[in-house]
Amino acid sequence: MSHPFMDDVANGLANLRIATLRYQFPYMEIGGRRPDSPALCHATVRAAVGAARELAPALPLLAGGKSFGGRMTSQAQAAQPLAEVRGLAFLGFPLHPPKKPSVDRADHLSEVKIPMLFLQGTRDALAEPDLLRPIVERLGGLATLKLLEGADHSFHGSKRSGRTDPEVSHEMLAALAAWATSVI
């Protein structure tokens, strides 16, 4: 949660007057490499949503996360709706492992009944755009896909695309803020 990317996102959203609550999964807290069980991750997501509601009860609530955190949030929502959460935002949804294209990790998304935003780089090795687009289309009006040209899974621009990291970040945050406004 203290990774520079997460700091930049939280600060960028704060500048757009959007509050954030960052948290870590238990395995990250102890410096482990192997992720916790899905059940523990889902419980962690639920605890974080509860803490956010308690800290800022008057604010509309969105949930989501970067990569694994976003996937665990969507799985938790699919299993049992997160109380008072109005939408889910994914910063680099990990659709498949690198160099192993698959769509199995998206099966649960059809159970999510609130708006979802997928912010993805066009060079994301964990979510090939040609695999993600049809999934988002099948989800209909609940899902929005924003592709960030030239960005990878970490939202770094490429020299070839001519996009700098700050340009990609600005576009990503603007898209997130506009989507949040439309959901709320």
Which terms would index this structure?
4 strands, alpha/beta, 6 helices, single chain, 41% helix, 184 residues, four-stranded parallel β-sheet, Rossmann fold
Task: Give a structural overview.
This protein is an alpha/beta fold. The protein is built from six helices and four strands. The protein has one domain (4-183): Alpha/Beta hydrolase fold, catalytic domain (Rossmann fold), CATH 3.40.50. Helices cover 41% and strands 14% of the residues. Strands 1-2-3-4 form a four-stranded parallel β-sheet, with helices on both faces. The longest helix has 19 residues, at 165-183. The two termini are 25 Å apart. The mean pLDDT is 96.
What's the CATH class label?
A: Alpha Beta
Give me the side-by-side strand order of the main sheet.
1-2-3-4
The residue-averaged pLDDT reads 96
List the helices and strands in order.
Answer: HHHEHEEHEH
Number of domains: 1
Structural class: alpha/beta
Q: What's the CATH topology label?
A: Rossmann fold
Count the helices. How many? 6
The general outline is globular
Radius of gyration based on Cα positions = 16 Å
Strand content: 5-15%
Helix content: 40-55%
C-alpha termini separation: 25 Å
